[in-house]
Write a structure and sequence with these properties.
mainly beta; Pnp Oxidase, Chain A; seven-stranded antiparallel beta sheet; binds flavin mononucleotide
Length: about 180
């Protein structure tokens, strides 16, 4: 027996994306976004409220970075989703995140988060979603093994929208484009 819950924004797994931008005065801002994903092979789409500082920054500076929040920085990631730079200009100092300028786009990278997409602002959809082009992906060496991202070293978290919780990804369950061959 299944129970109906109606139309709700429940989706699994939802990412915990930390979008970082520069403010008008050159200081950094960051926010937490769960509603975002790939748009095509070199583009991302973000569903951002137009009244966030981040949204204005993206349009004004034409760039942003997306870092995947990890388990080690759950508190920091949640904090930047609770407080707006419009209400507290000490937000970044309090967040515990430190930034450095991306070499590829006019946006900050968060030093504590090892995997980031560096994007330029491409366009806005008719209903206001932000489309960005992935210019570069940078990964801190400490989460690489033999030049590949190693998920035993990097622990991205996911947002559970039903229970309002963050969770890590679990164990490997199979090999993509391969495990299914058993049933052919
Ligand atoms: C778990 C979580 C997910 C969020 N997802 C989104 C989202 O997808 N889109 C959005 O516009 N805001 C989202 N927010 C809210 C923003 O992160 C929040 O309003 C933030 O303070 C905006 O900061 P800014 O004004 O400094 O840019 C989310 C917050 C949390 C805690």
């Amino acid at each position: 027996m299944r129970k109906d819950f109606g139309s709700r924004p429940w989706f699994y797994p939802l990412p915990v994306l930390i979008i970082a931008t520069y403010n008008e005065d050159g200081t950094a801002d960051a926010m937490n976004a769960a509603w975002g994903g790939l748009y095509n092979s070199d583009k991302v789409i973000l569903c951002l409220s137009s009244n966030h500082r981040t949204t204005r920054n993206i349009k004004e500076r034409g760039a942003f970075t997306i870092s995947f929040a990890d388990a080690e920085h759950t508190v920091n990631a949640d904090y930047v989703g609770l407080v707006s730079m419009d209400h507290d200009n000490e937000k970044m100092k309090k967040s515990g995140f430190n930034t450095e300028k991306s070499k590829h786009v006019d946006a900050p990278l968060i030093r504590e988060l090892p995997v980031a997409l560096e994007c330029t602002y491409e366009d806005e959809t008719d209903n206001g979603n932000i489309i960005g082009r992935i210019v570069n992906i940078s990964i801190d060496e400490h989460v690489l093994t033999d030049e590949r991202l190693d998920l035993s070293l990097f622990h991205p978290i996911s947002f559970d929208p039903v229970n309002n919780e963050y969770r890590t990804m679990g164990e490997k369950t199979g090999s993509a484009f391969s495990s299914g061959n058993k049933l052919k």
